[in-house]
Amino acid sequence: MDDIFxxxxxxxxxxxxxxxxxxxxxxxAYVLRQGLLRSHVAVITTICFLSDAALIAAGILGxxxxxxxxxxxxxxxxxxxxxxxxxxxxxxxxRALHPSTLKPTQDGKxxxxxxxxITLALTWGNPHVYxxxxxxxxxxxxxxxxxxxFSFGLGATTGSALWFYSLGFGARFLAPLFAKPIAWRxxxxxxxxxxxxxxxxxxxxxV
Length: 207
Known about the structure:
Number of helices: 11
Oligomer: single chain
Structural class: mainly alpha
Number of strands: 0
Distance between the termini: 49 Å
Helix content: over 70%
Largest sheet: none
Radius of gyration: 18 Å
Shape: globular
């Protein structure tokens, strides 16, 4: 087992998986916000990690090649994801107009069911996650034979776990900064801009 974690494929998978997921996106923005609010952080980060692990496993097992041969699937997901991102961006913009209400003691009480549904939608409704995990990681894993492919996928999965748990539970150290309403306003305006930019990037090729 030690050989797997110290191997070249594991390190390559770890670096690739981490570099792909660190990019600012709707999912990361939501994890950060909920981490600041300390709202169901363990549930959110675990959903994100397990979703990534499942998608990476699917890519390693060959689903990436199948999706590449059926681009219509990604088109459907792009439409659904684009509409969701536009809507969530509008909600973030609305929150930014009233930053005085954005305090952990108030806004951090979202129901567990609501948080789970939003996390699942941001994760599984984003075509980029399929491109990164299933297609890209799955495709690159094909260069490794046997157990080395498993080691590569394990490295990518480990990178996902390190990132999401660090982002979710590390966000609390930024809490003093977000004690001021202006910080919440800037965060929500940034989230809205990211959501709409991602929605445009998804829908533009379909126009």
